[in-house]
Amino acid sequence: MKKVVFVLGIIVIISACKKYEEGPVFSLRSKKARVDNTWKIEKYYENGVDLTAAVLSAEDITIDLTKEGKVTWTEVDLQSGSGNTKTGVWEFTDSKKSILVQISGGVSFSGTGSDIWNILRLKNKEFWFTVMNGSDQVEVHLISK
């Protein structure tokens, strides 16, 4: 009986420590190690409307984030084939619940070059967040490329 109570207590403690709305509940990898990846868009919502098909048919966007706090944003226009690569920096904010991303040249999900990504899910191969684009809330689901 004591073992059951102990296990239930551990489960309650771990689930109370969940930092991100969509998880994970527990990870052996640090948050920085989970961010460190080359990402591509899997889903894109604006004010709850799924615009994934429109976004993915227009541009191929790759976002490379490193543990050292560097970001490389590459977009290729799928109609013309022309590409654009910009660099910048990122850092955790708000007790690692958000990431401040600053990219040169005004390239970002808000179009300003400076975004705050409010993390919903941060796993090794999945990264979900919301960001404001003016008065519009954008939700982006990235997957490892």
Primary descriptors:
145 residues; alpha+beta; eight-stranded antiparallel barrel; 3 helices; 19% helix
Sequence-ordered SSE layout with sheet pairings:
Blueprint: H1 2-16, H2 31-35, E1 37-46, E2 49-50, H3 52-58, E3 59-65, E4 70-77, E5 83-93, E6 98-103, E7 114-122, E8 126-133, E9 136-144
Antiparallel strand pairs: 1-2, 1-3, 1-9, 3-4, 4-5, 5-6, 6-7, 7-8, 8-9
State the total count of DSSP E strands: 9
Average pLDDT figure: 87
Helix and strand element order: HHEEHEEEEEEE
* Class derived from helix and strand content: alpha+beta
Distance between the termini: 46 Å
**For the report, how would you describe the main beta sheet?**
8 strands, antiparallel, barrel
What ranges have pLDDT less than 50 throughout 5 or more consecutive residues? Answer: 12-17
Strand order of the largest sheet: 1-3-4-5-6-7-8-9
Number of helices: 3
The portion of residues forming beta strands comes to over 45%
Describe the global form: globular
Helical coverage, percent range: 10-25%
* Structural Rg: 17 Å
Describe the structure.
An eight-stranded antiparallel β-barrel has the order 1-3-4-5-6-7-8-9. Mean pLDDT is 87; it is low at 12-17. The protein is α+β, with helices and mostly antiparallel strands. The protein has helices spanning 2-16, 31-35, 52-58; strands at residues 37-46, 49-50, 59-65, 70-77, 83-93, 98-103, 114-122, 126-133, 136-144. A hairpin with a 4-residue loop joins β5 and β6.
Summary?
Helix content is 19%, strand content 48%.
